[in-house]
Amino acid sequence: MWIDEIHLITPRGVITSTQNNAVVELPPNRNRLNIIKHLSVLKDKEGSAFVEVDMWASYRDIILQMPPQANIVYEVKP
Question: Lesser CB count within 10 Å: N end or C end of the chain?
């Protein structure tokens, strides 16, 4: 799983499946409560052993509080 954001008019959350190379959810913003809400309804979240995120602290905190805890892989941008 990969959690990041895109910047259209305003930042919008993006949750993707790295196994299927597909967008799974597009929360209306990257607000912590919105991301948690969208993650909590995903069926395959239990199968996500790794979650890739950028270094924004809120993404890390969300993954750490959502059971089951996945290993966090930080996105490195050159």
Answer: C
End-to-end CA distance of the chain: 21
Distance (Å) of CA 1 to CA 9, 10, 13, 23: 25, 23, 13, 10
Is pLDDT of 34 > 80?
A: yes
- Give Cα separations from 49 to 6, 7, 12 (angstroms): 24, 27, 24
Residue 24 CB neighbour total at 10 angstroms:
18
The conformation of residue 41, written as its DSSP 8-state character, comes to T
Mean pLDDT within 23-40? 87
Amino acid at 66: M
pTM above 0.85, yes or no: no
